[in-house]
């Protein structure tokens, strides 16, 4: 099994789909299917359980993918160090980005970075903040955007925005005309939340528990616009960060400050500083910190 085969295997495991992995790697699905089959025959194990169109790693697959990720990371570190030694100022960065964060903060920063370093390519991996944090900690991603504070050990970070959550309700909701709301008042409501791989999912449920109730969650999504649309048609209520609330059509919903408790939403960029960081990654961290700080001041 060579590095290329390991990369194919890791991508299939990450996306849980041969088709999506082939698209991400810009190869055909038969090529990636043949590669995985070849690895299974070479090692004498089954790597994936197949359930129709769904696939999951077997126990053997989990072990092999874990080892493959370490080998690929070491290989990437080696090539990055050699590139830096030659001072080519080229490279590739995999950045984990929660979907609700990207459009609000990063298009301008990424555009400016590409203008300054056109030979550095950026691959954006959209996942919930919990998954991004885990992938940075494991080395699957060089850098990521997460909700602070982090739970994984060994991560360095800098914050770039600190806001709070607002209540979003339908205009006919009993609290719709209120100037502020308390969490306990939502005990009988139906909630529309982000999926479990989003930090806000657990944070909201934990805060509801502290307020004395278990929220009735009727729908979960990875897209904030779909969540707000569900509220707009009267299917439930939600809690969203101030930045997202500013993007919502406030003629179809009502946005109310949540004052008891105030639930913070603090975003930061994280990376592993106990591993080798390529020139591209180091420069991205420095550049993003400067530009995001400038955006905040503006």
TrEMBL record:
SUPFAM superfamilies cross-referenced by the UniProt entry: Periplasmic binding protein-like II (SSF53850), Winged helix' DNA-binding domain (SSF46785)
Keyword Transcription: yes
Superkingdom of origin: Bacteria
Keywords: DNA-binding, Transcription, Transcription regulation
CDD domains: PBP2_CidR (cd08438)
Residues annotated as domain HTH lysR-type: 1-58
Keyword DNA-binding: yes
Pfam families associated with the record: HTH_1, LysR_substrate
PANTHER family according to UniProt: HTH-TYPE TRANSCRIPTIONAL REGULATOR YBHD, NITROGEN ASSIMILATION TRANSCRIPTIONAL ACTIVATOR-RELATED
NCBIfam families listed in its UniProt record: trans_act_CidR (NF047520)
Family of the protein in this entry: Belongs to the LysR transcriptional regulatory family.
Protein name: CidABC operon transcriptional activator CidR
Organism from which the protein derives: Paenibacillus puldeungensis
Gene transcribed to yield this protein: cidR
């Amino acid at each position: 099994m060579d590095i290329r085969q390991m990369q194919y295997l890791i991508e299939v495991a990450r996306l849980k789909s041969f088709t999506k992995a082939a698209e991400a790697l810009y190869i055909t699905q038969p090529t990636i299917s043949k590669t995985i089959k070849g690895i299974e025959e070479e090692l004498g194990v089954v790597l994936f359980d197949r359930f129709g169109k769904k696939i999951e790693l077997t126990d053997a697959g989990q072990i092999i993918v874990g080892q493959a990720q370490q080998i690929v990371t070491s290989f990437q570190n080696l090539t990055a160090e050699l590139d830096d030694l030659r001072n080519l100022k080229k490279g590739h960065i995999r950045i984990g980005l929660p979907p609700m964060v990207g459009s609000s903060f990063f298009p301008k920063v990424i555009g400016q970075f590409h203008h300054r370093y056109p030979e550095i390519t950026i691959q954006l991996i959209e996942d919930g903040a919990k998954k991004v944090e885990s992938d940075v900690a494991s080395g699957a991603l060089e850098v990521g955007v997460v909700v602070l504070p982090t739970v994984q050990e060994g991560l360095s970070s800098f914050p770039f925005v600190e806001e709070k959550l607002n209540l979003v309700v339908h205009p006919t909701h009993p609290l719709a005309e209120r100037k502020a709301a308390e969490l306990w008042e939502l005990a009988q409501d139906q909630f529309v939340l982000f999926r479990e791989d989003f930090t806000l999912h657990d944070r909201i449920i934990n805060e509801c528990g502290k307020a004395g109730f278990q929220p009735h969650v009727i729908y979960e999504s990875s897209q904030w616009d779909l969540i707000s649309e569900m509220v707009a048609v009267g299917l439930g209520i939600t809690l969203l960060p101030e930045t997202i609330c500013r993007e919502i059509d406030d003629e179809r919903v009502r946005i109310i400050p949540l004052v008891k408790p105030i639930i913070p939403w603090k975003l930061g960029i994280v990376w592993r500083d106990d591993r080798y960081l390529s020139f591209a990654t180091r420069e991205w961290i420095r550049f993003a910190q400067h530009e995001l700080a400038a955006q905040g001041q503006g």
